[in-house]
Amino acid sequence: MKLNIIPVxxxxxxxQMLDQRLLPTEEKWLLxxxxxxxxxxxxxxxxxxxxxxxxxxAYGIALGAKNFVGTAVADLEDEIDYICDVIAATxxxxxxxxxxxxxxxRTFQKAKAEGKSVSEIKQILxxxxxxxxxxxxxxxxxxxxxxGELIDDNSTVLTHCNAGALATGxxxxxxxxxxxxAVDQGKHITVIADETRPYLQGARLTAWELMEDDIxxxxxxxNMSGHIMKKGGVHAVVVGSDRIAANGDVANKIGTYMVAVLxxxxxxxxxxxxxxxxVDLNCPTGDDIPIEERDRAEVTHVKDxxxxxxxxxxxxxxxxxxxxxxxxxxxxxxxxxxxxYLESLKAQFED
Length: 351
Ligand code: MRU
Known about the structure:
11 helices; 2 domains; 41% helix; Four Helix Bundle (Hemerythrin (Met), subunit A); four-stranded mixed β-sheet; alpha/beta
């Protein structure tokens, strides 16, 4: 394993993002010089995946503050509030976005209360965005360690969407972190990657990043998983999450719920891997999680190729919610939480 994929980076001139829309055929880095560019990068899926969106949001706020021209802390505060509103309006489901915005706002308020100057606050915000990034990578390392221990040697693990290094601050990933953790522990693991229609994160991104790390991967279409599970070809399912409600209901990429139902039917453990920044104790249940709906063209087209008749009715929900009774365990940087999640998740925050 190379363990070297980092999808977003801070640079003196702005925020660098690996353009995930072009993978796997092109590896192109963009340099985003304003907070508006970063917000657009999140909205347009240059960067995607809940923890990666959170890290990017923090960098976007730091960049916006850095570009602020003025000397009054009160004016900087107004500017930061506005920047946060713009970034908050990009994607609604991944709570890591809102978690990062809250944290950056708190960092600003602390610096202001300590009487720091505008130039000092700018540096404090850059430092905190970098700290959010470092902490995210460390969380994924711990998820990899705890999760890897749950996977048996010689297992075939099915995953949905891309919950890898590309979807986080980098290096390990959440679901793919668990797989990398098991490999790091000396186990022989084979991965089955659902292609993940309509946006094909599994085919384009998961397949690419596992191949980069020399982890054997077989790509399937989303409708093949039941057949393969029935034949005994899957030993565990591991997915990431965009938001976990206080009761352990899990929002993740559309199609995750179907996989969880199939796993239950076939007695296969269904694991969710996510940092605590993905757990939203303010959402009592999955019904309270906002579900993003995206452009119809993602369903009717693949890139520029039209598949469906002009004008056909389309639904394009980007996420679904898997009820907690289908979840075998939730792996975070604090360890392995099991039902009842209302207690076990809360305990991890208090740990
Ligand atoms: O629409 P996306 O590509 O941002 O959706 C990503 C997912 O659903 C991931 O599984 C989730 O964010 C977890 S990433 C570690």
